[in-house]
Write a structure and sequence with these properties.
The chain is an all-alpha fold and 178 residues long. The chain has eight helices and no strands. It has helices at residues 2-55, 61-76, 89-94, 98-107, 115-119, 123-137, 150-154, 156-168. Helix 2 crosses helix 8 (156-168).
Amino acid sequence: MARLLMLALKQPFERMAARRRGLLYGAAFVSALLLAGCTVEVENRQAAQEVARLSKPPGSVYIGWRIFQDRCAGCHGLLATGTAGAPDLLPIVREMGSHQFVSLVLKRYDWNLPAAQASSDGATRQALIEDIVQRKEKYMLTMPAWQGEPVVSAHIVDLYGYLSARAQGTQGPGRPAQ
């Protein structure tokens, strides 16, 4: 009789153990699915952050702001929105890339001249110099070439970063965060 009792009790225990194993396997499967979903979420967040980082203009906005305040604000205004003697830089910078910006600031004297004319040699270059001298005599300001200025040359990418951020609206008119 003890044996029959043990057989009778063994079946419900086996069913309960099988049910527990099934629940355990089910919980493990659901946990694996949840963890897999979390992994995808983390990867997507990192990719989005990487895309955002790569879409920012190069350079330090804060250092560019300091260079702008020191060297450029006297003519272009504290907010880079122009004065009577110099243009508003925000719409100009919004339409150009970093290479064109560097070329204009370091090598050209006049923002309104085509790049080929400003860098050409010979008679064209002489005419450009003559035009600059005449403008100076008439008290018309022209954009100086900053190539020989060590501070501007060393931080030209930062200067572009600041002006580009202002032009795109990601940096307000005040002092940027360091």
